[in-house]
C-alpha cells in the first residue's frame, strides 16, 4: 500500500454531520442498539464481574502471547489444521492466494471478517481474477455498492432500506421501489444461496482461537459462515493473533459479553466451533496475522487496545460516531477503538482521529473488556504533539495560554480586556467565520467584573 | 480547618455568580473558605490538546497554590478530575504536597454530600428542572451512576437537588449523553459539537424543562450559546446557584 492521504476528520465528516436528517436518523438507529445493550447488561447481575474477568484474561493472554500462540499452533496442527503465519497484510493476502492457486479456485464465498478488510483481501483477490462474494447480508450490500463497511458489526448501518431496495433492484433484479426488509432479505437469500452452491473455497474470520484445544470459534447471526464452509472442501480462517484465549473454559466469559455488547442479543444466533478439518477429504487453513499487533503490544500505554473483541459497542455509544457516520474515520475500524488503533499504524495519516472525541468517556464505560478508550485517545494527543505532528494553529495558542496562566496578574488583565472587548465590539466583529465557536453559538455575555474583582471588593 | 475555593478560569471571567454562589453556599454551611488570589487555571485546555509540557508549569503552580489548605473545593467536575486523575504525569508519586492536594481536592457536590454530609437544605426553587450530568463529573469522578456501568451508585447531584423545596424534575430521555462541549473539541469539530449540543438541548426540553442544571458550567456555556442563538427561553444554571436559592433569571436579551 502506498502512502495514505492525511485524513482530516472535521472535513471528512462534514457532509454527514451537516445533513441533519441523515445524521439524526443514524444517531437514533445506533442509540436503539445501545439501548438494547443496556437492557441485556442489566439482565446479567454479574455484568461488571464478567468485564473484570474478561479484561484480566486478555491482559494475561497478551502478556504471554508468544507461548499461547505456539500452544495453539501445536494443538490446531495435531487436529489436522494447517497453520500459516503472516507478518503483515501483504503476507496474509499472498498466503490466502497461494491456497486458492493450489486448488485452482477462481471463486470464494467469504463471511464477514474485519481482518480481511484490514488487509484489503477482496481487492487483492479481485485484481488476481478471483470472484469474491461476501455472504453476510450487510457486507453484501456494501460490496454491491462498491463501498466499505461503516461499522464493524453492522456494516451497512449507514444505508437506508430504500437505498438497499435500489441497490438490489440494480444488481439482483428486485422490484423497483421495493423497500420491505422481509422481501429484500428473501431476495438476498436466494441470490446468496446460488453463490454458496458455487463457492469453491470458504473464507471466514475468527472471533476466538483457543490455545488449549487448538479450536477456533466463529460467531454470526445469519449462519452464513457455517454455510460458507460446510459446502466447500476447503476452509480458510483468518485470525488476528490477539484473538487468542488460553483455555476453552475462558470462552464463556466472552461469548456472554460479545453479543450483548454488540447488538443487545443474549448470544449470537450461530456460535460455531471448528476443531480441525471436518473429514479426511477436507482442509482447514488457519492464517495467523500480525500486521502491527506485535508492535502495539510493545507499547505500555496502548497494549490494552489488543483486548478488543470487535463488539462495536464503543461505536454505538460514541456521540461523535453516531453523528458523523463510520466512513468519516476513513479506516477499517472506525469509532473510538479505531481512533486508538489507526494512529498506531500511521500516526501522520490518522492524526486527527484522537481529536474527533469530546472525551465523554462513554466508550470506556461500555467496553466489555475494559479498554480505557478515552484515556488512550488522550494519550494519543500527547504522543502526537510530542511527535510534532500537530499544526501550529493547535499548539501555539496553548503556549500562549500556558504563559497567561502562569502570570495571574496578566491573566486578570487579559480577562478584563477580553470581557470589555466582548461588551463593546460590534456583533459582526466577534461573530464571524474566523471564530468557530460562533458558527452556531453565541458567546457568553461578559459580566462587568470577574469573580476575583468581586472577591477583592467584598471579601478582601 | 481552612478550605480554599478553586474557581475555573472561565467561571472567574464569565460566570462570577457561579463562584459567588459556591462561596455563599459554603459559608452558609459554616465552612471557613478563602479564595487564593494567585490561582488561574487547572491546565486542562493544554493537557486535553496534548500539549503536556505547556500544562506542566500550570499544574505545578496550582499544587503550590493549594498545598497549605485542608481542602480545596471546586465547582466543576472537569477541573477536579484534572487534578485528581490527570496530574500524576507532572509529579513524582512521592511528592507529598501533590498527594495532599490530589486527595483533598473535591468537586462541590462531592464535598457537600460526602464530606459535609449535607442531608437537608433550607432552600426553595419552584421550577421544572432537568439535570445535565457532565461527563467528567459522572465518568471520571463517579458523582452518580453512569448508564453504561451496572455498578449501583448514589447520584450525589440528584440527591442534593432533591433537598430543594418545590423543585420539579423533568429528566432527559438519554440520562447522561454528552452535550458535545469537550473543550477545544467545541472549536476543532465545531459542527459536530454544535449538533451534539442541539440534540442534547432538545432532549432536555422535550419534557418541559425550564432550567437545565449542571455541576459543570462549561457544558452549560456551550448549551447556553446554542440556546441563545436560537432565542429559546430556556435557562441554564449551575447547581450552586440553585442550591443557594438564586432566583431564575430572565433570559438575557440577545443582541
Ligand atoms: S474497544 Fe471495546 S467496545 Fe470497542 S469494539 Fe473493542 S471490545 Fe467492543
TrEMBL record, chain A:
GO biological process, any: lactate metabolic process
Keywords linked to the UniProt accession: 4Fe-4S, Electron transport, Iron, Iron-sulfur, Metal-binding, Repeat, Transport
Gene3D superfamilies: Alpha-helical ferredoxin, NagB/RpiA/CoA transferase-like
Keyword tRNA processing: no
One GO MF term attached to the UniProt entry: 4 iron, 4 sulfur cluster binding
Keyword Chaperone among record annotations: no
Domain 4Fe-4S ferredoxin-type: 298-328, 348-377
Record-linked PANTHER family: LACTATE UTILIZATION PROTEIN B
Record's protein name: Lactate utilization protein B
Organism of this sequence: Rubripirellula lacrimiformis
Gene name as annotated: lutB
UniProtKB/TrEMBL annotation, chain B:
Protein name per UniProt: Lactate utilization protein A
Domain Cysteine-rich intervals: 3-83, 130-224
GN (gene name): lutA_1
Organism whose genome encodes this protein: Rubripirellula lacrimiformis
GO molecular-function term, one example from the UniProt record: oxidoreductase activity
Any single Gene Ontology cellular-component annotation: cytosol
Pfam family, one: CCG
Amino acid at each position: 500500500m502506498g502512502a495514505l492521504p492525511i485524513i482530516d476528520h472535521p472535513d471528512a465528516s462534514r457532509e454527514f454531520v451537516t445533513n441533519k436528517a441523515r445524521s439524526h436518523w443514524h444517531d437514533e438507529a445506533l442509540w436503539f442498539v445501545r439501548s438494547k445493550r443496556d437492557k441485556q447488561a442489566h439482565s446479567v447481575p454479574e455484568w461488571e464481574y464478567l468485564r473484570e474477568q474478561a479484561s484480566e484474561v486478555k491482559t494475561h493472554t497478551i502478556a504471554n502471547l508468544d507461548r499461547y500462540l505456539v500452544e495453539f499452533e501445536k494443538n490446531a496442527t495435531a487436529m489436522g489444521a494447517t497453520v500459516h503465519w503472516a507478518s503483515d497484510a501483504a503476507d496474509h493476502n499472498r498466503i490466502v492466494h497461494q491456497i486458492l492457486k493450489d486448488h485452482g479456485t477462481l471463486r470464494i464465498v467469504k463471511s464477514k471478517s474485519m481482518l480481511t478488510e484490514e488487509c484489503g483481501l477482496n481487492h487483492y483477490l479481485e485484481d488476481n481474477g478471483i470472484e469474491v462474494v461476501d455472504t453476510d447480508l450487510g457486507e453484501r450490500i456494501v460490496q454491491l455498492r462498491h463501498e466499505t463497511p461503516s461499522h464493524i458489526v453492522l456494516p451497512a448501518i449507514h444505508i437506508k432500506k430504500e437505498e438497499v431496495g435500489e441497490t438490489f433492484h440494480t444488481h439482483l433484479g428486485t422490484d423497483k421501489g421495493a423497500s420491505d426488509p422481509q422481501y429484500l432479505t428473501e431476495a438476498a437469500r436466494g441470490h446468496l444461496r446460488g453463490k454458496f452452491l458455487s463457492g469453491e473455497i470458504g473464507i471466514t474470520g475468527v472471533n476466538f482461537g483457543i490455545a488449549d484445544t487448538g479450536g477456533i470459534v466463529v460467531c454470526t447471526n445469519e449462519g452464513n459462515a457455517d454455510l460458507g464452509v460446510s459446502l466447500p472442501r476447503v476452509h480458510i480462517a483468518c485470525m488476528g493473533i490477539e484473538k487468542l484465549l488460553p483455555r476453552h473454559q475462558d470462552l464463556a466469559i466472552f461469548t456472554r459479553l460479545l453479543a450483548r455488547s454488540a447488538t443487545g442479543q443474549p448470544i449470537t444466533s450461530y456460535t460455531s466451533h471448528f476443531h480441525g478439518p471436518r473429514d479426511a477429504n477436507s482442509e482447514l487453513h488457519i492464517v495467523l496475522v500480525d500486521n502491527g499487533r506485535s508492535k502495539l503490544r510493545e507499547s505500555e500505554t496502548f497494549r490494552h487496545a489488543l483486548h478488543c473483541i470487535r463488539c462495536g459497542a464503543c461505536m454505538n455509544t460514541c456521540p461523535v460516531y453516531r453523528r458523523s457516520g463510520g466512513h468519516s474515520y476513513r479506516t477499517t475500524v472506525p469509532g473510538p477503538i479505531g481512533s486508538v488503533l489507526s494512529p498506531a499504524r500511521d500516526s501522520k495519516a490518522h492524526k486527527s482521529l484522537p481529536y474527533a472525541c469530546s472525551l465523554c468517556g462513554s466508550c470506556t464505560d461500555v467496553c466489555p473488556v475494559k479498554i480505557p478508550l478515552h484515556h488512550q485517545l488522550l494519550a494519543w494527543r500527547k504522543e502526537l504533539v510530542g511527535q510534532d505532528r500537530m499544526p501550529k494553529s493547535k499548539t501555539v495558542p496553548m503556549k500562549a495560554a500556558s504563559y497567561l496562566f502562569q502570570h495571574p496578574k496578566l491573566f486578570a488583565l487579559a480577562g478584563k480586556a477580553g470581557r470589555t472587548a466582548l461588551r463593546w465590539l460590534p456583533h459582526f466583529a466577534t461573530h464571524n467565520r474566523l471564530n468557530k465557536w460562533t458558527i452556531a453559538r453565541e458567546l457568553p455575555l461578559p459580566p462587568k467584573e470577574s469573580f476575583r474583582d468581586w472577591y477583592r471588593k467584598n471579601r478582601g | 480547618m481552612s478550605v480554599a475555593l478553586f474557581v475555573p478560569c472561565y467561571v472567574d471571567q464569565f460566570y462570577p455568580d457561579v463562584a459567588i454562589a459556591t462561596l455563599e453556599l459554603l459559608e452558609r454551611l459554616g465552612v471557613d473558605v478563602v479564595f487564593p488570589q494567585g490561582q488561574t487555571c487547572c491546565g486542562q485546555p493544554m493537557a486535553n490538546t496534548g500539549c503536556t509540557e505547556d500544562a506542566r508549569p500550570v499544574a505545578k503552580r496550582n499544587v503550590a497554590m493549594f498545598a497549605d489548605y485542608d481542602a480545596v473545593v471546586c465547582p466543576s467536575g472537569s477541573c477536579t478530575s484534572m487534578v485528581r486523575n490527570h496530574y500524576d504525569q507532572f509529579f513524582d508519586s512521592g511528592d507529598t504536597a501533590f498527594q495532599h492536594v490530589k486527595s483533598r481536592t473535591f468537586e462541590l457536590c462531592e464535598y457537600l454530600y460526602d464530606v459535609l454530609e449535607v442531608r437537608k437544605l433550607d432552600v426553595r426553587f419552584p421550577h421544572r428542572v432537568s439535570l445535565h450530568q457532565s461527563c467528567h463529573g459522572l465518568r471520571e469522578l463517579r458523582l452518580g451512576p453512569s448508564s453504561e456501568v451496572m455498578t449501583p451508585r448514589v447520584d450525589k447531584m440528584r440527591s442534593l437537588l432533591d433537598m430543594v423545596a418545590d423543585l420539579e424534575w423533568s429528566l432527559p430521555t438519554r440520562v447522561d449523553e454528552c452535550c458535545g462541549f469537550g473543550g477545544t473539541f467545541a472549536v476543532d469539530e465545531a459542527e459536530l459539537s454544535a449538533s451534539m449540543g442541539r440534540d442534547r438541548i432538545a432532549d432536555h426540553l422535550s419534557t418541559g424543562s425550564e432550567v437545565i442544571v449542571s455541576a459543570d458550567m462549561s457544558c452549560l456555556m456551550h448549551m447556553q450559546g446554542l440556546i441563545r442563538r436560537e432565542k429559546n427561553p430556556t435557562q441554564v444554571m449551575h447547581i450552586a446557584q440553585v442550591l443557594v436559592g438564586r432566583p431564575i433569571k430572565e433570559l438575557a436579551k440577545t443582541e
